[in-house]
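sorry for the late reply, my laptop died twice this morning and i had to redo everyting from scratch. anyway the thing you sent over, i finally got around to it. pasting the sequence first so we're on the same page, its 422 residues, then the predicted structure underneath. double check i copied it right bc i was rushing
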Amino acid sequence: MSTLIFITSRFPFEPGEPFIEAEFPFLHSNFDRVIIITRNVTAKKLRTIPDDVKVFRYNPTSTLTGYLTFPFLIFRYFTKIAGIYKDEISFRKEINRPVSFKLKLFLLKKTIKALQLKIFIESIIENEKIEGKITFYSYWMNNGAHAISMLDKADKIKIARAHRIDLYEEETESNYLPLLKYTYNNLDGIFFISAHGKEYFENRLRVINPKIQISRLGVLNPFKSEIQKTNLGSFRIVSCSSLIKVKRVDLIISALENLKTDRRIVWNHFGEGPLQVELYDLAMLKLGKLKNIDFQFMGQIQNSELLKFYANNHIGLFINTSSSEGIPVSIMEAQSFGIPVIATYVGGVKEVVIEGTGVLLPVDLMAEDLTKMIQLYANMNEEEINKIRIKAFKNWDLNFNAAVNYPDFIAKVNSIFASVKD
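ok and here's the structure:
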């Protein structure tokens, strides 16, 4: 009997983590039993998952009881906490990134949160009478990864993925991600979604180890249609991201304001966020009176509906103006339909927007730079644009096709289990 205990942030609840939808069927088919532990305890809408999958919801800081257990846990696990704390402080000094008093308190809090989740996982194992081979898989290298790092290893393996906000310390509010070294030491495998992320981690921790691997995400294109040929009518642009500061959707609005082309421009943005009212007002101010530009904020929709939109509409261009990324699934989805991409040269984006599939702009680009590139693609002749479409589709099929990447990931996980057991 093989069991997967899969720790997520929101999945299988909506919204959030839509990219897990492509991976989960492969996970489910590889294990006799699957249990999901999600740290989201408030969302109500559940994605469609197999009936035999059990879901537990747990967030140790979501209740007063969670905070009240802090003193008890410190007393009970004092030696363990003290050892983790000492090693973390020493490691930070070694890499010349010492931790302030405030961040030491943050470290203590994160360590206790991990202990709380560890205890919860152990209670599930006991209550569900789980025996045999267990794979603990944290989708993020955060609290879930910290917690499974603390578990005993007998007939078990512990793995995690690393993306962006759980990896790049500079992208966090505190400029600090605790327990990176501890997690590395105690996991059996860490899978980075980009080569850039793997290199960053190795440089930060000053380590090279076979258990640090690249395992790219992937998407499925359920529509077996051919790549769409050039549409000489309106030119549709799509962007897809949360409406938050780091995504810089305002740059797209400013770029479209000064666009010079005879073609009618249609811009659709998918995604919601705290800046949606502000960005809608800005779009109305800058684009609302322009006769040749239509725009629509499409909101948060299911991933399947987004792919259906791509299949049923001719998309001339996909734009990502983010100031920080891991390696965007949204770009993979666009390329699976042969859509050219304009994106910023950040994180692992250069690994998906390769030569001939679109263009990379510097992270400090101005709106005028984006305007010029949009004009270039909007005015491109049919032969030129179709070459780019074919190259974009082939890049997805070769490098980011879920039907290839996730079986490969499963094979790597099974290999780890075999090597650990040996």
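The two ends are 18 Å apart (CA to CA).
thats about all i looked at so far, will dig more tmrw
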